[in-house]
Design goal:
alpha/beta, 6-stranded mixed β-sheet, two-stranded parallel sheet, elongated
Length: 417
């Protein structure tokens, strides 16, 4: 348990807010081992300015507030009281990069003291084996470790951390959506927040609760070792890239095929659509997201049954998912401003129709591939072109028009010229 002193506090409806201070060493000691893997936070990044944070603390200068969220329904804070919080129930909303760098140095101090290794290169090898992320992010290097040994930095930093107080804003009992809102506000000055990034945050928070019940569906991130296999179609029905699923959901709601960037947790829209506009958060409830994912898997399995390996390769592509779901949105005449019940009804009805049409006519991937191979990349943007082609094919399939890949490819090609 981490002991902090309450300097100020307020109760706001169903949540509480506290301004607190606590010892830095105790804070780093009590952090859970995976604190930096909070799903809605971005990954640890290289930043040379943040790497000077330890010098700031050694100079006894203050560092910015760290914002935490904490779950404890029975906590009743009062000004001046010392309270204990369970750091296993804490997530870092703002200050993750700072915390990680301080924690890395704390770990260096602990490991050096416990190992008793006197040779810098040997100690660096141990740290690189046990904490590779320290080297990957540039926080630690062999040169830095050598300097620590030469200048007795281990002891100096240990003393500085022990004597330093950190100040926190602690939000108690926030709902998942309020957690997202706090993150968006705290990061608002750093970069514009696109609608899709808001989708990602809300989806991730909900996915943490859903993934245990949806054990036949797996979402993969760029950092996962299985990614290359998933993208190449070596997967089971229900295995998807996280970003592709997010873009599919947005494509359905906006009735147009969107695209995914290569940066995990950063989906870029068409250039004119980057904005901080509000989204319809009501779609982020367990019932709708579960229906959305289960229906994707049903279509996935159907395509695998019909098209075998080619179906597995084709359906997992973000161009395919965004094109099909955009077509579904066009056919369903969905509108983001509709109630979640209406959106769910339209989605369920149109998807049932889609499954029936695919079972009856299929997607004819042999013909799709033939037309795709005839495309000249010099004349069109392949990704954008294919998403729109698949959207149009899906709409015609749903409208029982017996679509032809050749006709749709040719029509789109003429419009692109």
């Amino acid at each position: 348990m981490y002991k902090i002193t309450v300097l100020d506090c307020k109760t706001l409806d169903d949540r509480k807010w506290m301004l607190c201070k606590g010892n830095l060493t105790d804070y780093l000691e009590e952090l859970k081992e995976d604190f930096y893997n909070f799903s809605i936070q971005r990954k640890i990044v290289k930043n040379q300015y943040l790497d000077t944070l330890v010098t700031t603390i050694k100079d006894k200068d203050p560092i910015p507030l760290i914002t935490l969220t904490y779950e404890d329904q029975h906590l009743e804070p009062t000004v001046g009281a010392q309270i204990s919080i369970d750091m296993n129930q804490v997530e870092i909303l703002d200050g993750l990069q700072r915390t990680f760098r301080l924690w890395a140095h704390y770990k260096l101090i602990r490991e050096q003291k416990e190992s008793g290794i006197a040779e810098p290169a040997q100690f660096a090898k141990k740290i690189k084996t046990e904490y590779p992320i320290f080297f990957e992010t540039g926080i630690v290097s062999l040169a830095k470790i050598r300097n620590f040994y030469q200048e007795n930095e281990f002891h100096k930093i240990y003393e500085a951390f022990n004597a330093f107080d950190v100040y926190f804003v602690v939000w108690v009992n926030l709902t998942p959506k309020k957690v997202i809102h706090k993150m968006l506000v705290l990061n608002a000055g750093q970069r514009s927040v696109s609608k899709t990034h808001q989708f990602e945050l809300l989806f991730l928070y909900l996915w943490d609760d859903l993934k245990n019940s949806l054990n036949d569906i797996k979402l993969f991130r760029e950092k996962d070792p299985e990614v290359s296999k998933i993208k190449s179609g070596q997967r089971n029905a229900g295995d998807y890239m996280f970003t592709s699923v997010i873009v599919a959901l947005r494509s359905f709601l906006e009735k147009r095929p969107l695209r995914v960037s290569i940066d995990d947790l950063d989906v870029s829209e068409l250039s004119q659509d980057i904005s901080s506009a509000e989204i319809n958060e009501s779609v982020f409830n367990a019932d709708f997201i579960e229906l959305f994912l289960q229906s994707l898997k049903a279509l996935d399995q159907l395509l695998m049954n019909i098209e075998k390996e080619e179906g597995s390769k084709w359906f997992v592509k973000d161009t395919t998912l965004s094109g099909i779901l955009a077509g579904l949105g066009v056919y369903a005449k969905v509108d983001e401003r509709q109630s979640v019940n209406e959106i769910q009804r339209l989605y369920e009805e149109s998807f049932k129709t889609l499954l029936a049409k695919v079972e009856q006519y299929g997607f004819n991937l042999t013909e799709f591939t033939r037309q795709y191979n005839l495309l000249s990349s010099r004349s069109v943007n392949i990704g954008s072109f294919i998403r729109k082609v698949i959207m149009d094919y899906t709409v015609e399939l749903l409208e029982d028009k017996k679509p032809s890949w050749e006709e749709i490819f040719n029509a789109k090609n003429k419009n692109a010229l």
